[in-house]
Amino acid sequence: MSLLRGLLGMELIGISVRPFLDFQERLTLLDSALILDVPLGVISRIEKMGGATSRGENSYGLDITCKDMRNLRFALKQEGHSRRDMFEILTRHAFPLAHSLPIFAFLNEEKFNVDGWMVYNPVEEYRRQGLPNHHWRITFINKCYELCDTYPSLLVVPYRASDEDLRRVATFRSRNRIPVLSWIHPENKTVIVRCSQPLVGMSGKRNKDDEKYLDVIRETNRQISKLTIYDARPNVNAVANKATGGGYESDDAYHNAELFFLDIHNIHVMRESLKKVKDIVYPNVEESHWLSSLESTHWLEHIKLVLTGAIQVADKVSSGKSSVLVHCSDGWDRTAQLTSLAMLMLDSFYRSIEGFEILVQKEWISFGHKFASRIGHGDKNHADADRSPIFLQFIDCVWQMSKQFPTAFEFNEQFLITILDHLYSCRFGTFLYNCESARERQKVTERTVSLWSLINSNKDKFKNPFYTKEINRVLYPVASMRHLELWVNYYIRWNPRIKQQQPNPVEQRYLELLALRDEYIKRLEELQLANSAKLSDPSTSPSSPSQMMPHVQTHF
Amino acid sequence: MMFFFLFSVSGNASNPEFKKKKNSECLLRLRHEGLLNSCPAGVASCPASSCPFRSPRSPRLKLLESALLLGPRPTAGGMEFSELIRTGRAQAELLRGPGAPPLRGTLCVTGHHLLLSPGPQATSDLWLLLLRSVDSIEKRVAGDSGTITLRCKDLRVLQLDIEGVEATLDIARSIEALSSLESVITSFPFFYRPKGLRLGDAWHFHPPEHYYKRVARETNAWRLSEVNEDFSVCPSYPRAVIVPRAVDDDALARSARFRQGGRFPMLSYHHAPSGTVLLRSSQPLTGPQKRRCAEDEELLRAVLAGARPGARGFIVDTRSAQAAKQARMTGGGTEAKAAYPGWKRLHRPMERGRPLQESFVRLVEACGDLEQSMDRWLSRLEGCRWLAHVKEALSTACLAAQGMEREGACILVHGAEGTDSTLLVTSLAQLILDPLSRTMTGFQELVEREWIQAGHPFQLRCAHSAFSHARPKHEAPTFLLFLDCVWQLGRQFPLSLEFGEGLLLALFEHAYASPFGTFLCNSEKERCLCEVRTRTHSLWSGLNQPKEQRKLRNPLYVLNPLAIWPSVEPQSLRLWQGLFLRWTRPPEPSEAAWEKVWQIVTDKEKTEGSQPTVSASEPQP
Fold it and tell me: Which family is it part of (chain A) (predicted)?
C-alpha cells in the first residue's frame, strides 16, 4: 500500500496541482479551486501527447480516456522526465492485469458495518417467489458448474424434467445455457424463462429433447395453449446466426410455441452508439443541432427497443397469461436486459433498494453477464471488441422508468449513478469477472468488499423520498421517443459548463418539509401533554392528544 | 329563463314533455355552474356609472368607439345567437382521448357553450365546453350518424359521435358560426356570473399606481405620469406610466410622436440592488432621413442621469442589425449612436409573428402525430424550431438581466412595435432578477403589468391557436412562448417559483379562451371602451379563490433572494410535455409525486394551524 501512496512529482502548467495516487487508488488532483477525483479503474486508455519538441501551451502532457464519458488532459512541463514516471505509474495501476498485479478490489481494506455479500441468497429469493412448487424444482445439477460453466450453481427447472433431460437439452443450446426459470407470477403461475439460442445451424437441426423440454415448460401453466418465445435479436441477425451454428426455434419443430423477434441490436451496435453520444456531449455539447445529433446516435432508439421488448414480456406474462421464454444469442446480454426489466415492471419487490440489488445480483451477476469482458476491468486493451455498455443501457432504462413513475422506486438517481461509478472503479468485487464459477475460483466474496456494503450502510443517501410502497402493481412505462430523454445528469455530468445540482433540490426540500412536519407534530404532542397535565379531567379538553392525533396522522 | 329556450329552436326530441323536463334539468344545472345567474338583458342594462374610470363615456371616447368596429350589443333576449343556432340538441357520444371514459347523452348548443347532459341514470356531471375555445371543427357523416372532431385552443382534441346526419351538420354549423364570433361585448365573459365572486373584484389589484409605490420607495428619480390619461398619446399604453421625474408631459408627448404607435420609453422595472432600470418602448421613427427627436434623446439622457452619474445604457434591439436598418425604409429605424451618448446598441434577433406561429403549429402537429414513425421524432422536434425560440428568448432576457445586475447598466428593450418580443424580454428579465415577481401575487402582477396593461394585443395574437385552418392574420404565440420560458425556469429552479405548472397552464388556456375578461381586447383603451372592468369578472379573482390554490401553487417554494440564471444549453431546455403532450400522455404517475408533496405540506400546515388552538385552550392560571 505504501507503494501507492507516494506523490507523483509532477508539475502542471498554469496551476500548481499535485496529482497523487492515494491509498484508494484514485487519481486525485488537489487545488483550492479544483478537486478531480478519478478511480484508476475508470481509465480505459492513457496516451502521451506531444513530444520534446512540441511548442505552444498545453501541447505536451497526458491524455486519459475514461470509461465514464470523460477525457482528462494533463498539460505538463517538458523539463525533467516527470511525464515518463507518471505515465508508467498510471499505466501499472490502471491496467494491473497487464502487469500481473492484483485488481484494486483485492487490496481494498475498507470496512462497512453491513456485509453486502449477504444480500443475495438464491434459495431465499426463489422461496420468496414461492418456489419450489408442484411444477418447478430447485436443482443442484450445476453445483460444480459442470452442466454450464457460465450459469449459477443453483437453477430452477420444471419438475417433470429429469437431470438427464437437462443434460441432453444442454447439448442443443449455445454454451449449454439451457432454459431455466427467472421469475414466476405469484397468481397466474406463468413464468419468465431464460436461455441461449438453439444450435439449429445451416442444416436446420432439431432436438427432440429440447422440443419436449419447452413443451414441459408450457404445460406448467395450463391457461394457454402456446409458449411465447421472444428472440431479442432482429430477424436477420437470428437467421445469420445459423451460419455459425446458432439460430432460432422454427414453427415446424416447436408446434406449441410462437416466436417474436424484438429487433434489439448486438453489443457492437450499442458500443458505437454510445461512442457517438460521447462525441456530442464531451468536451463540448453539440449546440447547433443538438436534437438531430442526439437522434443520429440512435442511443434513445436503442433504449426504446429494449424497453418495448421488456414491456412485451411483462405484458405477455401479466395480461396474456402465457409463459415466456427469452433468449438472444448467448443469453447473457440482451436476455439479461429483458428479463430483469420485465421483472422490475412486474414485481414491486425489485423496486426497493435491496430488491434491486438482488435483481442485479441474480439476473446479471449470477447468470453470467460478462462484466469483465464488457467493461475490461484492469485490462489495457481498450479497443477490445468485447466491450459494450449493455449494463449501462439497462440502468438507463431503469432511470427512464423512475422518471415516469416518480413514486414507484425506493432508490433515487444517485443510487443508479453510484452503481455505474463502481461498475468501473474496481473498488468493489461485485462486478468483477464474467461468471460465478470464475468468481468462486478467485474467492471474490472472501477477498473483496461488495458494493452493496457501501450502499446499504448509508441507505438514506440513496432513498427516493417520494417512494410509496405498493404490492402487485405492474408498471408499464411509455416507451415512445416522445417520453424518453437523454439522462443528462449522467452523460453530461462532466461537462464543465453544467452546474451539478447535487443532491437533487426537490428531494432535499421534500425531506426538509418532512422533518418540519415531524417537528411540528412533536411540539404539538408536547404542548398537548403539558395541556392535559394541567387539566384535571383531560377528556373535557377539545384538544387532548387522543383526539388530535388521529386527525394529524391521517396521511401517514 | 328565455335564454335557453331561444337557443334550442329545433330540438329533435319527439316527446314535448320529455323536452320540457330535459330543458328544466339543464337550466338547473346551468344555474348550478354559475352560467345563468343573469340573462343577457340584465347585462345590457349594467350601469356604466360603476366604472372605476373617470368619465368613461367622454365625447372623445365615443368617437374612438365607432372607429373600433365593435360588434353589436346583445338586445334583450340575445336574438343574434339564436339565429346562429341551427339545432338545439342531439344524442351524442363524446370521446375525450386517453384516460377519460366516453360520455353519452344529450348534446345542446347554446350561445356560448356546447353542453353534453348525460342521461338521468348517469353518474357523471354535465359536460361543458366554451365554444370560444374551439379552434377548428371537422365533420364527417356516414350512414345515419356523423362525427364531429373539435380541436380546441388548449390543444385538446375531442370527438363527438352524433345520431342523425342533419343534426350533425346543423350542430357543426352552429359551432362554426358561434365559435368565430368576433364581437367582444357579446362574448361569454360579459354573461359569466359565477357564484362567490363579485363584479369589479380584483380589477383594482394591479394598477400602475401600485407598482409605482414600490418604485417610489426605492428611488425618487421616477414619477407617475398621466399624460396618457385619455389614451391620446399612446393608444396601447395604460392611463398612467412611470417616467423619469426630469421629463415633463409635453416632452413625453413629443417623444411619443417619434416612436411607433406612440410607445415612448417607459419604466418596466427598477432593479434596486444595482439602482438600474429596465425600460421598454417601440422603435424610433428615424426613417430614411435619419430624423431625430430632441425630447426622446433627452428622455434617455434623463434615465442615465437618474440612475447614477456616469451610468451607461444598453439598447437591446430584438431585431437583427440588418432588419433594423431595413425598417428605416418604412419609416422606422433605430437609435443613432451619436444622438444618444452613453447608450450602446445590441442586436439580438428574435423570431416573431408568422414564423413563430408556424413553429407553434408545426410543433403541435408533431406532438399530435401518433401514427408517424417515431424514429425521427427528435429531428422533427428540432425542425419545429420551438426550442430554438425558447433559447433565443431566455438568452436575450439573460443579456438584459446581466446588463443590469452585473454591469450596472440601464437597459432599453425594443423591436418594432414593442408589443411582442419586447415584452417577452422585459418580463423574463424581471423573473430572473426579481424575487418578488416569482411569488404568486408578484407573477400575476407581472403578467398584468408587462403583458395586459403593456398592450400585448391578446385578441389579435390569440384569435386562433395551432389547429385553425383559417389564414393566420395577426396570430402569434408570443405569450405562450413566455409561459414556456417560465416553465423552463421553474424546471431548472424547482424551488424558486411560488407558482407551479398549473398556473402556467391556466394562463395559457385563459389567454386563448376564457369566461373571464382579463385577456379580452388588445389594450387598456379597448378594455375601457368595452367596459371590461365593470362588466366582466377578473381572472385573478377566479384564480385566487382558495379552492384553486392547490392546482396553482408550488408546494416546495422557498424564497430565493438571488437572481436565477437559467442554463440555455440545448440539453437544459426541454419540451414542455405538460402542455404539448398534456392530452396524449397518461397523467397519473407524474402527478403522484406532486400529490405526495401536497399531502406533506397540508399536513404541516394543519399541524401549524392547530398549534395556536392548543396554546389558546390552555387554562389561564
Answer: Belongs to the protein-tyrosine phosphatase family. Non-receptor class myotubularin subfamily.
DSSP string, B195-225: TT--TTTTTTSS-HHHHHHHHHHH-SSEEEE
**Closest CA of chain A from B555, distance in Å:** 9
pTM over 0.80, yes/no: yes
Q: What is the pLDDT averaged over residues B281-296?
A: 94
With residue B590 as reference, give the H or E element that holds it.
Answer: helix B588-616
549-578 of B, contacting A, C-beta below 8 A:
555-556, 558, 567, 569-572, 574-575, 577
| Secondary structure letter of residue B66 according to DSSP | H
Q: Which amino acid is at B584?
A: T
Choose the closest CB to B571 out of A466, A486, A499.
A486
Place of cell 439460442: A197
Q: Is the CA virtual torsion A135, A138, A139, A145 positive or negative?
A: positive
Rounded to an integer, what distance in angstroms lies between the CA atom of residue B424 and that of residue B446? 11
Paired with B103 in beta bridges are B94
Q: Is A287 on the interface with B (CB under 8 A)?
A: yes
Mean pLDDT, chain A, integer: 86
DSSP B482-526: HHHHHHHHHHHSTTT-SB-HHHHHHHHHHHHS-SSSTT-SSSHHH
CA–CA distance from B58 to each of B62, B208, B230, B231, B236 (Å)?
A: 7, 22, 9, 12, 18
Q: Is B467 exposed, middle or buried (0-12, 13-18, 19+ CB in 10 A)?
A: buried
Cα–Cα distance measured from residue A368 to residue B19, given in angstroms and rounded to the nearest whole number: 73
The C-alpha cell 357553450 sits at: B113
Q: CB B318: neighbour CB atoms within 10 A?
A: 26
Q: Between chains, do B593 and A552 touch, taking CB under 8 Å as contact?
A: no
Q: How does the average pLDDT of chain B come out, rounded?
A: 81
- Count residue pairs from A and B with Cβ separation < 8 A: 139
- A516 CB neighbours in chain B (<8 A) are 604
**On the CB side of A340, how many CA atoms lie within 13 Å of its CA?**
29
Interface predicted TM-score (ipTM) = 0.83
Sort A115 into a burial class: Cβ within 10 Å, 0-12 / 13-18 / 19+: middle
A534 Cβ under 8 Å from any chain B Cβ: yes
Of A115, A132, A133, give the one whose Cα is nearest residue A123: A132
Question: Which of B375, B603, B608, B618 is the best residue to mutate to test the A interface, defined by the most A CB atoms within 10 Å of its own CB?
Answer: B603
Q: Is residue B460 within 8 Å of B475, Cβ to Cβ?
A: yes
Contact between A264 and A306 under an 8 Å Cβ cutoff? The reply is yes
Report the alpha-carbon distance of residue B451 to residue B437 in Å, rounded: 14
C-alpha cell at B438: 416569482
CB B125 within 8 A of CB B115: no
**B84 touches A at CB < 8 Å:** no
Question: Vertex A173, ends A167 and A175: CA angle to 5°?
Answer: 90
pLDDT (0 to 100) of residue A130? 95
The single-letter code of the amino acid at B278 is L
Question: A479 Cβ partners below 8 Å, 6+ apart?
Answer: A304, A307, A308, A311
- Give the bridge partners for B231, in sequence order: none
What's residue A27's pLDDT?
63
Q: Above 50 in pLDDT, residue B575? A: yes
Residue-wise pLDDT for B412-452, tens only, equals: 999 999 999 999 999 999 999 999 999 999 999 999 999 99
Inform me whether the pLDDT recorded for B613 exceeds 80.
no
Of residues B588, B596, B513, the one with CA closest to residue B155? B513
3-state SS assignment for residue A182: strand
- Residue A388 main-chain phi, psi, to 5 deg: -165, 140
| Rounded percentage of chain A residues whose pLDDT exceeds 70 | 87
